[in-house]
Amino acid sequence: MIKILNLNFYVIYYFIFYYSYNISCLVINVKNQNGGIVKETISANITDDTITLELQLLDSTLITQHIDFTKEVQIVQVLLLGEEERGQKPYQILCFVNHIHANEFISPDAMAKLRQKNPGTVRVAEDNKGVFNVTIDMKIKLKDSIHISQHVGSLCSEAPDTTFTSKVDIDKWAAVPGMYLGNLLQTVEYINYKIPKSNLKLCRDTGKVWSHCLCTMEVSIPWYPCALKFCKDHIGKKSTAVESYRCGIQTCTKTMNFMYSVKHKQHCLSIE
Questions:
Q1: Taking the mean position of all CA atoms in its chain, how far away is CA 63?
Q2: CA nearest 37: which of 222, 257, 220, 225?
Q3: Residue 243's beta-bridge partner residues?
Q4: Which residues, 6 or more positions from 217, have their beta carbon under 8 angstroms from its beta carbon?
Q5: Torsions phi, psi of 168, nearest 5?
Q6: 151-176 exposure pattern, b = at least 16 Cβ within 10 A, e = fewer
Q7: What is the C-alpha separation between 60 and 88, in angstroms, rounded?
Q8: Are the C-beta atoms of 249 and 114 separated by less than 8 Å?
Q9: For a surface tag, which of 105, 110, 130, 176 has the fewest beta carbons within 10 Å of its beta carbon?
Q10: What is the per-residue DSSP string for 69-112?
Q11: Residue 3: per-residue pLDDT
Q12: Strand order in the sheet with 37-45
């Protein structure tokens, strides 16, 4: 009996140690562009080489930004609450899957070492990266999405018809070691409603509910650690040699404006 208890203790200890060492979580209060205060949760998984950032907007919209560093893949999941009195579903999910360079966010290993000294402090990003316009022209077939990243299928399982990417991103991933253009092309299909995008109006400028139009989804990440800061110091009091050491993080904010065509205006969802 004692041996069994000891074994269970070591199993539990190993699980706690493994989880705390490989997965870390940071919860912070940040000020968004409109001056409102939102709570962000950023978790790093060293084993999977991933970082996940989650935040809930003031209108209850849920944003999840998931970065797969190995595959150079960013998944932005948007969960919008529906208006049931208008016959809408309780919620709807959209996923935007795009290429991201590994140096646009600090690594999971560096993220795991961050500690929150003053949990109540409201953070403001130091650097505004501006607005990134992303033109979407492809839908991802979830059953084949593992060719892009194993995380697409799990994060976007409830968005089989609204998981998007672009041909530009497909071509960028084809240059990533271990990813192949043939497999990537099997994963996607073009969004094509027979009308050239150049002739499309923005959905917000279209009065007809059944019109084919260009939908925009603007997603802002108000605060994220985008780089490490390094300071320099002399090795010794009398030495002229200088060494660099890590002394903090650079924080950024950015906005992604996803643009994609929809068959009818009523299919265009947006963050209020």
A1: 8
A2: 222
A3: 233
A4: 78, 94, 96, 257, 258, 259, 260, 269, 270, 271
A5: -60, -45
A6: bbbebbeebeebbbbbeebbebbeee
A7: 16
A8: yes
A9: 130
A10: TTTTEEEEEEEEE--GGGT--SEEEEEEEEE--GGGS--HHHHH
A11: 40
A12: 122-123, 23-31, 37-45, 50-56, 62-68, 73-81, 91-99, 163-165, 138-140, 188-190
| Three-state secondary-structure class, residue 189 | strand
- Cα(226)–Cα(127) distance, integer angstroms: 9
Cα gap 259→240, rounded to integer Å: 54
Reference 42, options 32, 20, 27; nearest CA is 27
pLDDT along the chain (272 residues), means of 10: 40 37 81 90 96 94 97 98 76 96 94 85 94 96 98 97 97 97 96 66 86 92 93 68 81 95 85 62
The token duo for 209 is 């509910």
Amino acid letter for position 43: S
- Is-contact 233 246, C-beta < 8 A? no
Angle of CA points 257, 261, 267, to nearest 5°:
95
CA separation for the pair 208, 120 (Å, rounded):
47
pLDDT value of residue 142 = 98
The residues, any chain, with a CB within 8 Å of residue 142's CB and separated by 6 or more, are 152, 153, 156, 157, 160, 163
Residue 39 · residue 56 · CB < 8 Å? yes
